[in-house]
Amino acid sequence: MRFIDEYRDGEIARRYAEEIKRITTRTWTLMEICGGQTHSIVKSGIESLLPEEIQLVHGPGCPVCVTPLEIIDKAIAIASRPDVIFTSFGDMLRVPGSHKDLLAVKAEGGDVRMVYSPLDALTVAKNNPDKRVVFFAVGFETTAPANAMAVKEARRRNILNFSILSSHVLVPPAIAAILSSSTNRVQGLLAAGHVCTVMGYEEYFPLVEKYKVPIVVTGFEPVDILQGIYMTVKQLEEGRCEVENQYSRSVRREGNLAARALLREVFAVIDRKWRGIGEIPSSGFGLSELYADFDAGKIFGVESIEVQEPAMCIAGDVLRGIRKPHECPAFGNECNPEHPLGAPMVSSEGACAAYYHYGKIRNPISTQ
Amino acid sequence: MCLAIPGKVLTIEKDAQPVMGNVSFAGIQRRVCLEWLPDVNVGEYVLVHVGFALSKVDEKEAKETLDILRKMGEGLDELKQDGDA
Ligand code: SF4
Fold first, then answer.
1. Which one of 3.40.50.11740, 3.10.580.10, 3.40.50.2000, 2.40.30.20 gives the CATH number of domain A65-170+255-299?
2. What is the pLDDT of residues A146-164, one digit of tens each?
3. Is A355 helix (H, G, I), strand (E, B) or coil?
4. How far apart are CA A31 and CA A187, in angstroms?
């Protein structure tokens, strides 16, 4: 496939790895923010190509993994109602709630449907006027404009049996939370390229200024990631910290202005709890006042639910890059993709599932 | 979750609200919302996520990413990018 295959070229990847080795004089810890990048790194064995001095830790950039248990339980409560058709991207269906997941609701007779696009959920609403159709709106800034468009279209086309359960999260506040933590060991960041196609990268200038950490906007294919690592290490070795853009074929400095304008219209920035991490101020989107009628959380007024996280799961440390998946006592034992205890084992972009699928446990890297 | 893939724009329905079009992903066609790329043309590549085109893929920048290698070392002889879509 054009614009993909050439960035998977093993020879070019090896050449980049050699260059990284050549310029590295000391140890550096880098974090890739995005779960898609984690998946690509583990799948393509990038860590084994890097010199020992370069340590990659995996960030919290998997929206499926960081959706709080309370919201999963809320989704399950709404989806269980006989008057509701509950629609969602496929990867949310298997995320364990306190007692079950959305697939179990479906097995018990609930009308739970997987959709490819939020506009498909809107079509379901239009075709089922006697039901209330709820879309589970999760995702980072990459996905938020699509979900915003569904809400805006619902209003424009007067499809009033449609609503969304929003659990949108934002990347820059999470970066700030990681870098300002007393346990932080991240010295350079690969920012998530697809988030930046929408948002651009102006938000990163103040972060670089404040935390003195290079941030390189990076794509998702192996050559992209190696080039992003190269650019980050080069900055560190030269004592620079700047915002740079590796993914310039798709990311413009200002992002996509039309999509950003839609976000401002439909959503409002709110405090948001991240599963495993806790509350991060101004780190999520809820519906703006103008669109409050489409808020499934308000429409269904689900009572606040008491949640239970499995005690063994160290997902919080994994998501902040403090520990690696195979350091979890449950990894591969009580917890596996067939029977996940925590969300990072459910989504293919979760670090635990990526390590499980690609056998990282056979080649553990020291985390010191 | 944030997976987005490049596809080639085949048709644009400018009058649709929102603007839609057909996009080919290695031969597989899908209807995609093009509302946020007002200056996109048929034949150009766009990056698509959950049915929405988020940005145009810039051919010149795409080539440069691969070309940086040449500047770093003695250079690969060729970095062929043939094979459309
Ligand atoms: S391996 Fe399972 S139990 Fe351990 S941190 Fe990952 S998701 Fe949680």
1. 3.40.50.11740
2. 999 999 999 999 999 999 9
3. helix
4. 8
Cβ atoms A273, A73 nearer than 8 A = no
In Å, what is the CA distance from A259 to each residue of A71, A83, A326? 26, 33, 39
**Does position A367 have pLDDT exceeding 60, yes or no?**
no
Please judge whether A249 and B61 are an interchain contact, meaning their C-beta atoms are less than 8 angstroms apart: yes
CB contact under 8 A, B55 and A119: no
Domain count, chain B: 1
Residues with CB under 6 A from ligand 1: A 312-315, 318, 325, 328, 330-331, 335, 341-342, 344-345, 352
Half-sphere exposure of B81 (CA within 13 A, CB side): 14
- Residue-wise pLDDT tens digits, A51-80: 999 999 888 888 888 888 889 999 999 999
pTM (two decimals): 0.88
Interval A3-30: pLDDT, tens: 777 777 778 888 888 999 999 999 999 9
Residue B66 and residue A6: Cβ atoms within 8 Å?
yes
Ligand 1 center to A336 CA (angstroms): 8
